[in-house]
Amino acid sequence: MGADQLSQLFAALTDPTRRNLVARLTEGDATVGELAAPYDMSVQAVSKHLKVLEQAGLVSRAGVNHRSPVHLEAEVFDLMTGWIERYRRRAEQRYRRLDALLAEMNDSPAGEAGPTSGPGQVGARGRAGNTQANGEPASDDPPMRGTA
pLDDT by residue (tens digit) across 55-66? Predict the structure, then answer.
């Protein structure tokens, strides 16, 4: 499947009416009139939507008249799913690498400075996470007059 055909498939599904028509066709074949019945639009308007779906390869019709059944070409979804799945796997790999890096950062000793120190961890020169003996956040600010 070429990139242009893939673009046509996704473009055809950008319209909510066309997505609804596809959803209805998952239940079985239907005529244009049956597909148009729940909508407040003409049979001709629904037919135009079906033409876009047909050009994208999502549906087919046995004939050219409005009484011909419209059939969903479900195998096209396998092609779309394959494309989506490839990018989902790539994103998942990136998240796993990030999780591993974060786990490595959390496993490093707290006083250690370096590239593995992260948010909420304290490096040798870091300020984040400094606490007093009572667990309260420590401040590097000088005490206010009359309070120390």
Answer: 999 999 987 776
